[in-house]
Each structure stands twice: as structure tokens, then as C-alpha cells.
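Look over both lines:
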Amino acid sequence: MAKELNPNEMVSAKDYNSEPDMCFEWAADYILLQDTSMTGNFKNMIQAINHLSQRGWEAISMTSDGSQIMTLMHIKTRKRKNEDLE
């Protein structure tokens, strides 16, 4: 069973990627994604941003200290689970 993600708390990009359809259940207009990487590649963050952008979300702010990255996402257009993705 996948970990339940709370959009009112920081959301791990890795956890989001394991259950990407979870975003259809969120009522929040903003979420804060977080990812860590020892090599600075942040693959989980990139994958999560791409998934969310296809579902109507937009990255509006990003900050990193080299080993951790946080991205503020905003919902521009709410899409239904069965609606065509871009």
C-alpha cells in the first residue's frame, strides 16, 4: 500500500512518483515538493514536476542547497483523473 501523501505538508518527490494519481484527490492549490540527491541529479523531482505539469500544475519557485531541492507547485487547471493529459 502506498504512503498517503498530505498536500498540507511537504511532499516527497519520490513518494509522489510511486503514486502520481494521488494529485487528483488534492484540494490544495499549492504543494511543496522536496527531493534529496547526493549527486545533484534530482531525478525524482524532475519526474514529479513532469507528471504534475501534465496534470495542470506549474512550478512557480525552486530552491536548492546542492543536496536538497524544494519546488513550490501551483495548480493552474484542475484535470479529472480520466481527462486527456497533454
Notes: The chain has one domain: 11-75. Helices lie at 13-18, 43-54.
